[in-house]
């Protein structure tokens, strides 16, 4: 494959104050791939993810070196606006984050509605995004009900729909199923495989089986370093690194 | 460790007894706490209701010795004073609270928080005297403006503090979710954080309104009082609490009755402000009982 990667991490270093949490990580994410990042708690995988839409900047002590290219353009370059970067790189969090005070359909198009777009054209957009997130059938009769009235699993799919509704290039997911029951989690996994046709996904997960099930490639991180980046089948069956092997076989982490 | 059935049973019974005793104690204490409230309300209603009639709401106070009259001018005056106070204190207080909660890392925020705490613990008469020297004396007149500003200064820190506390309850990941959609910071604060906590912010405003509606001391030196209808914002302005105070300390039975009626009116007025604010500002407020 010689096509230009959608996301390219190039020698990314991240710091919180004096703490060096990501140490020179480089790998490429191709279009319509699902890439999983695994590793023990505190290994820097969430931090790396947060750098990719510049959300780490919300912490005033955070600092990044290296570059992350989105379609070949560095998201940290001098005049890049984090707001624009975030419109192209969406994010779904560990806990569902439906906005209170907004109905289901308003939640879905919150990224446009709260930026001042007219309500009129947005209902269709909401329907489209809800269908993409396979939530439409469950909510089509109560679109005006509060977003927070949905179950946790439904709220998480609502958040995915909300991320899709701003037409991003890629979506980052930070342990999107770890706060959900097994059935809701399975539905999200199905959804991720479905969404892969239209979008690129980078997912951080603690669940190794999940990474093995849904991802094309997997990055294994430890103490801030990228230990191995390989196709998921290779990494889980025949890892190149001894460290990867002992992690996936449950010897540490 | 396995407990014998007997010991287990005894433990369980002891716990149940303890639970009942504690529940009883808590209920008793809550009851004691609300008794004074009901006694005051009962007293006000019993003493005030007899002097309440249509004239009381529409007429001016009558000179000593005459029968009848009312506190119409004081009711209107109080509404004017509270309106002036809210006009300044609500927007400044709410946005001040937003600043304290959302920009808490900035150095000026801690200075501002310190000022708010200081203002909150300031005796109301001191605020009254401050307005007296800075507004009443230069303008050479007691006025509704001076009274409204004094009440506003009392209201401001309460609104700011409650707004801050309420917004701080919004989890960080909800803010981040808004930012991750590519919304700018101010939109996230205004349309997600503040809107999500709207009803709680309004509760804070209503509490502050209740607090200032009954203030007397600062009004004595700012709005002063007036036996006529308020005609200008730069004139001495009558108010319910000041009129109640003047009548209550008088030696006349008839005036005492009027003072009780005024007190009842004040309580009912605050009640209506409370209901009104909630109904008007929480219409279509989806999901306010969740999260």
So, the CATH homologous superfamily of the largest domain in chain B? MetI-like
Strand content of chain A: 25-35%
What's the CATH superfamily of chain A, by name?
Answer: P-loop containing nucleotide triphosphate hydrolases
What shape does the CA trace of chain A take?
Answer: globular
What features would you describe in this structure?
The complex is a heterodimer of chains A (253) and B (291). Helices cover 34% and strands 25% of the residues of chain A. With 253 residues, chain A is α/β, with parallel strands linked by helices. Chain A has one domain: Rossmann fold (3-Layer(aba) Sandwich), CATH 3.40.50. In chain A, strands 6-7-8-3-9-10 form a six-stranded mixed β-sheet, with helices on both faces. In chain A, α5 (122-132) packs across α7 (152-164) and α7 packs parallel to α8 (182-195). Chain A is globular. Chain B starts with a helix and ends in a 10-residue tail after the last helix. The model of chain B is unreliable at 286-291 (pLDDT under 50). Chain B has helices spanning 5-48, 54-58, 72-102, 107-120, 124-139, 144-168, 172-180, 185-196, 198-213, 217-220, 240-248, 253-281. In chain B, α1 (5-48) crosses α12 and α4 packs across α6. Chain B folds into two domains: 5-51; 72-281, MetI-like fold (Orthogonal Bundle). Chain B is mostly helical and 291 residues long. Chain B is globular and about 85 Å long. Classes of the chains: A alpha/beta (253), B mainly alpha (291). The A-B interface holds A 53, 55, 58, 60, 83-88, 90-91, 93-95, 97, 99-103, 110-111, 114-115, 144-149, 159, 162-163, 166 and B 105, 171, 173-184, 187-188, 191-192, 195-198, 285-288, 290-291.
């Amino acid at each position: 494959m010689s096509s230009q990667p959608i996301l390219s991490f190039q020698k990314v270093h991240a710091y919180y104050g004096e703490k060096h949490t990501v140490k020179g990580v480089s790998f490429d994410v191709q279009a319509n791939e699902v890439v999983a990042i695994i590793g023990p708690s505190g290994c820097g995988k969430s931090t790396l993810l947060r750098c990719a839409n510049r959300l780490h900047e919300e912490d005033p002590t955070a600092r990044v070196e290296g570059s992350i290219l989105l379609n070949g353009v560095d998201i940290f370059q001098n005049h890049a606006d984090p707001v624009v970067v975030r419109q192209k790189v969406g994010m779904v969090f560990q806990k569902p984050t439906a906005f209170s005070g907004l109905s289901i359909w308003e939640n879905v198009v919150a990224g446009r509605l709260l930026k001042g777009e007219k309500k009129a054209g947005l209902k269709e957009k909401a329907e489209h995004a809800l269908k993409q997130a396979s939530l439409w059938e469950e909510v089509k009769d109560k679109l005006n009900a509060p977003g927070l009235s949905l179950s946790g699993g439904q709220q998480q799919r609502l958040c995915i729909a909300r991320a899709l509704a701003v037409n991003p290039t890629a979506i980052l997911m930070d342990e999107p199923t770890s706060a959900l029951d097994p059935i809701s989690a399975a539905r999200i996994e199905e959804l991720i495989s479905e969404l892969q046709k239209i979008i690129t996904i980078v997912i951080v997960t603690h669940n190794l089986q999940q990474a093995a099930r849904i991802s094309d490639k997997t990055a294994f991180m430890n103490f801030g370093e990228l230990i191995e980046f390989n196709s998921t089948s290779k990494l889980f069956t025949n890892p190149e690194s001894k460290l990867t092997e002992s992690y996936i076989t449950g010897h540490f982490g | 460790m396995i407990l014998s059935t007997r010991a287990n049973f005894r433990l369980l019974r002891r716990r149940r007894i303890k639970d009942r005793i504690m529940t009883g104690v808590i209920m008793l204490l809550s009851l004691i706490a609300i008794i004074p409230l009901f006694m005051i309300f009962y007293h006000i209603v019993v003493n005030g209701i007899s002097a309440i009639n249509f004239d009381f709401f529409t007429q001016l106070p009558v000179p000593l010795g005459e029968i009848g009259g009312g506190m119409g001018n004081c009711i209107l005056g109080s509404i004017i004073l509270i309106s002036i106070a809210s006009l300044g204190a609500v927007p400044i207080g709410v946005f001040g609270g937003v600043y304290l909660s959302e920009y808490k890392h900035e150095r000026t925020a801690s200075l501002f928080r310190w000022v708010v705490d200081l203002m909150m613990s300031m005796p109301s008469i001191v605020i009254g005297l401050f307005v007296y020297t800075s507004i009443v004396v230069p303008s050479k007149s007691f006025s509704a403006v001076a009274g409204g500003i004094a009440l506003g200064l009392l209201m401001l820190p309460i609104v700011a503090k409650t707004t801050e506390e309420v917004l701080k309850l919004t989890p960080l990941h909800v803010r981040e979710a808004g930012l991750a959609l590519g919304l700018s910071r101010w939109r996230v604060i205004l349309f997600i954080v503040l809107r999500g906590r709207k009803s709680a912010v309004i509760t804070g405003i209503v509490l502050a309104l209740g607090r200032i509606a009954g203030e007397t001391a600062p009004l004595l030196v700012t709005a002063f009082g007036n036996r006529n209808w308020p005609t200008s914002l730069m004139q001495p302005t009558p108010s319910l609490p000041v009129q109640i105070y003047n009548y209550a300390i008088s030696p006349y039975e008839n005036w005492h009755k009027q003072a009780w009626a005024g007190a009842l009116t004040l309580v009912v007025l605050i009640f209506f402000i409370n209901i009104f604010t909630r109904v008007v500002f929480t219409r279509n407020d989806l999901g306010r009982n969740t999260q």
